[in-house]
Design brief:
CATH topology: OB fold (Dihydrolipoamide Acetyltransferase, E2P)
Number of helices: 4
CATH architecture: Beta Barrel
Largest sheet: 5 strands, mixed, barrel
Distance between the termini: 77 Å
Helix content: 25-40%
Radius of gyration: 19 Å
Structural class: alpha+beta
CATH class: Mainly Beta
Shape: globular
Strand order of the largest sheet: 1-2-3-6-5
Length: 158
């Protein structure tokens, strides 16, 4: 009888975890969350709806410049690339306000697979956070490309 109760309990816990996997543990570094971007609050702060809930997410490793015109252009760029599109967040950590921070990649037929932070840096609309880079130095390469191409922040009029 005890074995039967134990098996019943294990089955119920498994079913609960399957229906609500986030309830047994919080997101860990390296986890991925797949959903739809439903709001762009700033060039680096978006809202990702992943079915059970929605969360504010922040792009890792990039900074918004102080220039208002570039900031507005960056927000518009992010909106065109992500708003109401499928995306995947590769979770790094939570900031002091509990916002999930990570790499956001679009996963949409129309725009294809794109790393949002990388595309913003490549377009010269954001800059790489000093002292941070992706594993293969992609952000540094994108920033150098934008500087050499004199795009956005790096254009002659700035």
């Amino acid at each position: 009888m005890a074995v039967r109760r134990f098996l019943c309990l294990v089955t119920m816990l498994f079913a609960f975890a399957t229906l609500n996997p986030g309830s047994l543990r919080s997101a860990q570094a390296g986890d991925s969350i797949y959903g739809t971007v439903v709001a762009v609050k700033s060039p680096t702060l978006l809202t990702l709806d992943y079915g059970r809930s929605s969360r504010n997410i922040r792009l890792v490793g990039v900074e918004v410049p102080r220039a208002l015109q570039i900031s507005k252009a960056a927000e518009s760029f992010v909106s065109r690339l992500t708003l109401n599109r499928k995306a995947r967040l590769r979770f790094y950590y939570r900031d002091r306000n509990g916002v999930m921070v990570g790499r956001l990649q679009t996963d949409d037929r129309e725009v294809g697979l794109k790393d949002v932070g990388l595309e913003l840096v490549r377009a010269g609309l954001l800059q790489r956070h000093k002292g941070f880079d992706y594993t293969y130095k992609e952000l540094s390469a994108a920033e150098l490309e934008a500087r050499r191409g004199r795009r956005g922040l790096w254009s002659p009029g700035r």
